[in-house]
Amino acid sequence: MQMPDGIPAEIDLSRPSAARVYDYFLGGAHNFEIDRQLAEQIASMTPNLAATMRAGREFLRRAVRVLLDAGIDQFLDIGSGIPTVGNVHEVAQTANPKARVVYVDIDPVAVAHSRELLAGNDLTGVIQADLRDPERILTEARKLGLLDFDRPLGILLAGVVHFVPDADRPGDILATLRAAAAPGSHLVISHSTYEDQPQEMLDAQRLSARTDTEITLRSWAEITGYFGDWTILEPGVVHMELWRPDSPSDVDANPERFGAFGGVARYDQPAG
Ligand SMILES: C[S@@+](CC[C@H](N)C(=O)[O-])C[C@H]1O[C@@H](n2cnc3c(N)ncnc32)[C@H](O)[C@@H]1O
């Protein structure tokens, strides 16, 4: 098959990809017919979904700003997706031109487009890796030489941990990532949930099995557990829209309709 420009030849275009479906929902241009078909099918079942994805992106933007205000100037963004408007490095480098960002994604299309977009930006890097192999992510990130793991780091896991099934022990993965971070580091997580959700949302989740990565919805308690013993910042782990909205008028009348919890925690140096 003739591959579109910039797309690595090894990409399987016969299956939809979660990253490209997500890109389509966000209004991006990095998706193919197979992705659009699945996106439309999901959207017809859950008219909320495009708004949900935008809400996820907005949560990430607000969280990154809070980290920047806390002095974080380096970010490891895992499951970063296809670059669309308002990428982490854009938000971060607007506030601090010296901010460094390493993007990690499993999807070769997301990685190819990220490399294209970031060419010439010396303070950013891209790694193709699987969150289920956190040691490799850490090794590759260290090799890039952009992040200093002895200084506070922002670890971003927005809309990605739900792609890790229980069998791959997401709790252990999170523990590995937290253990690599210096005191003062922050962890940002947003994660889909079945709590407070209507049946249509749960049905759409079943469709995600048709992409390379199936979603596992989890409880508030499970998602909160991913922060380990780090200090969870106010207002806690909440429906994403309720996490420090820019303005109260931004909050939907039913913030739970987006079906995902978000939270941010800080690694405080243990006393003694
Ligand atoms: C819903 S998008 C989220 C994008 C971005 N973090 C955001 O919040 O706007 C999820 C991304 O996670 C990636 N992903 C899924 N499973 C992954 C894994 N095991 N390791 C790394 N990335 C993964 C997908 O390729 C996709 O780009």
Task: Explain the layout of strands and helices.
Blueprint: H1 18-25, H2 33-45, H3 49-69, E1 74-78, H4 88-95, E2 100-105, H5 108-118, E3 124-128, H6 134-144, E4 154-158, H7 170-179, E5 186-192, H8 199-207, H9 220-225, E6 231-232, E7 238-239, E8 260-266
Parallel strand pairs: 1-2, 1-4, 2-3, 4-5
Antiparallel strand pairs: 5-8, 6-8, 7-8
The protein binds S-adenosylmethionine (SAM).
S-adenosylmethionine (SAM) binds next to helix 1 and helix 3.
> How many H/I helices?
9
CATH architecture: 3-Layer(aba) Sandwich
Number of domains: 1
Total strands: the figure is 8
Rg, alpha carbons: 18 Å
State the end-to-end CA separation. Answer: 62 Å
Q: What average pLDDT do the residues reach?
A: 89
Briefly note the structural class of the backbone: alpha/beta
Q: What is the CATH topology classification name?
A: Rossmann fold
Strand composition percent: 5-15%
Residue runs with pLDDT of under 50 for 5 or more positions: none
Ligands, ions, cofactors: S-adenosylmethionine
So what's the overall shape? Answer: globular
CATH class: Alpha Beta
* CATH homologous superfamily assignment: Vaccinia Virus protein VP39
The biggest sheet amounts to:
8 strands, mixed
Protein name: S-adenosyl methyltransferase
Organism: Micromonospora deserti
Pfam families: Methyltransf_19
